[in-house]
Amino acid sequence: MNRDKKAVIAVLKDATNILLTAALGAVALLLAFLALGYKSLKFIADYYETLVWSLAALAFVVLAAYVVLFLLRKQAWYRLIFCAIVCADVFALIFYAICATGFITKITSIEALQSYIDGFGAWAIIIYIIFSYLQVVILPVPGSVTVAAGVLLFDWLECAVYSFIGIILGSITAFAIGRIIGYKAVCWIVGKDDLDKWLDKIKGKDYLILSLMFLLPMFPDDVLCFVAGLSSMTWPYFLVMIFITRLISCFTVSLSLDLIPFDTWWGIAIWIILFALVALAFYLVCKYSDKIDAFIKSKFRFLTSTGSDDKKDNDKK
């Protein structure tokens, strides 16, 4: 009898998991349909039916994959799909909000974004800083677009300062989210023991590469803040590193956009050369990464070491 009762409970739990996942998927799909219904952009209006049917087909495939993997007990895979569906809910909610408020029509170009922010008058500075913050944490807008709009709104120095304030606060928030929520989410998917073993193997090796990616403009440094939170990078090192790299990037990008035009042949040539130099710098740093990594660890040990590291050193002594 007890065995039958346990079997029934197990079946109910499985059914509940599947139904919960289906419900979350349905919420994401509903929000996406409602957002598309506003037809805020010409692309959405022209391809509305195609987008609706494509999203419906994608939702069906994802949910079917979840059910199959769940029944096959492929825990890491079906949990990964579940997390993806939860993320889809968040993005669908944001997409619905910016469509329902008409905000999506304001960020289709740098000039439109400039006009939108400038319309707030004396509050434009606060709005711009908040937008720079949200651009890191939740908004799918490249940082270069935000800075470029700021250069049009203010002079390059003011733009650099305001961008830096918003972006540094957003970066710290993203790192905290990655450190607190991201670790637990990955633990839930792959298992704590496996994750800790993997992080222990790469411990310390991620400092150089992540720092370089934050400094160079070709990488999605906003996303990297979440990744850094999941890595072995310590809070002190991240705070110092993000302050320096964001300071350099905000001021150099603002000044460059103010001085180097995109509508002249020599301006385009300079931008090509700059990107080539950045690519070369990245290659050289990767080539000599071991030596540079050892240098960073030796000179900034107080930032890269943790309490557990110090304890291990004392035990060896």
Brief overview:
The chain is mostly helical.
Question: What distinguishing features does this structure have?
Answer:
globular, mainly alpha, disordered C terminus, 317 residues
Structural write-up:
- The protein is mainly α.
- Helices cover 83% and strands 0% of the residues.
- The protein has 16 helices and no strands.
- Helix 5 packs across helix 7 and helix 8 crosses helix 11.
- The chain is globular.
- The C terminus is likely disordered.
Write the layout of secondary structure elements.
Layout: H1 2-37, H2 42-46, H3 48-71, H4 75-100, H5 110-118, H6 124-137, H7 143-153, H8 156-190, H9 192-201, H10 206-215, H11 221-230, H12 235-259, H13 265-287, H14 289-299, H15 301-304, H16 307-316
Q: What's the rounded overall pLDDT mean?
A: 80
Give the % helix. Answer: over 70%
- The helix/strand order is HHHHHHHHHHHHHHHH
**Number of discrete helical segments:** 16
Report the count of strand segments: 0
Stretches where pLDDT is under 50 for at least 5 consecutive residues are 310-317
